[in-house]
Amino acid sequence: MIRWLSARGLIVGTVASATPPALMAAVAPEATDGGFYGPRWPGSAGGPPGPQKLWKPLHSIRNASRLWQASQELTGVTFT
User: Are strands 37-39 and 49-51 parallel, antiparallel or unpaired?
Assistant: First the structure.
């Protein structure tokens, strides 16, 4: 079941489903500093991009630091 849903972009996003919220955050006039954007359907399961409430795990400085470190390791890009 998960494979079937993932293949349709319903659980695991695809490049195509991740692009609209990223573009909205980057260039939309209505995007705000510190805003969080994602699909607007219930559970962020799809739909057009729009503002979202920041997920509780994203409020943690420790989690943010871990995500930053993992991003640098996975991409091979470091920011100082």
Answer: antiparallel
Span 20-49, pLDDT tens digits: 999 999 999 999 998 999 888 887 777 899
Instruction: Reduce the secondary structure of the chain to three states and give it as a string.
Output: CHHHHHHCCCCCCCHHHHHHHHHHHHHCCCCCCCCCEEECCHHHCCCCEEECCCCHHHHCHHHHHHHHHHHHHHHCCCCC
* Cβ-contact 16, 29 below 8 angstroms: no
Q: What is the pTM of this model?
A: 0.62
Cα gap 23→49, rounded to integer Å: 9
